[in-house]
Amino acid sequence: MSKQAIRFLADESCDFAVVSALRTAGHDVKAIVEVCPGISDDEVIRIGIQEGRVLLTEDKDFGWLVFAGTDGGASVIFIRFPMRARSTLPETISEFVKQAGNKLIGSFAVVEPGRMRLTRIPKSDA
Fold first, then answer.
1. In this structure, is residue 2 part of a structural domain?
2. Tens digit of pLDDT for each residue in 65-114?
3. What is the CATH number of the domain that holds 19?
4. Tally of domains within the chain
5. Which of 126, 119, 7, 103 is nearest to 63 (CA)?
6. pLDDT tens digits, one per residue of 23-42
7. The whole model's pTM is what?
8. Domain range spanning residue 20?
9. How far is CA 111 from CA 50, 51, 71, in A?
């Protein structure tokens, strides 16, 4: 079985159970809370782009930052899970990553209970 490991950057808002599940699945996950807690959202995006990592976040501000505030190159999974559905969160994200694979690169994904959307992030002409 050949699978592609994806590099992730987990924002401080990301449930650490997701970090653990993706690490168990063989992915390289850098967690902001472990390496540089308290940095700005802009800095988180910069690290993600610079290191070629897909950002994992539950912070809706990253949608605006990615579509209006960067020059492209970002990749994001925005997690929207209410408290009542949190028990399935790590498994849902792991399965989504397995299905989407390299399509996550250069995309903005929204993952909710029972619903997943993947949108390509337009490249800036600047």
1. no
2. 776 665 567 899 999 999 999 999 999 999 999 999 999 998 999 999 99
3. 3.40.50
4. 1
5. 119
6. 999 999 999 999 999 999 88
7. 0.89
8. 7-120
9. 24, 23, 24
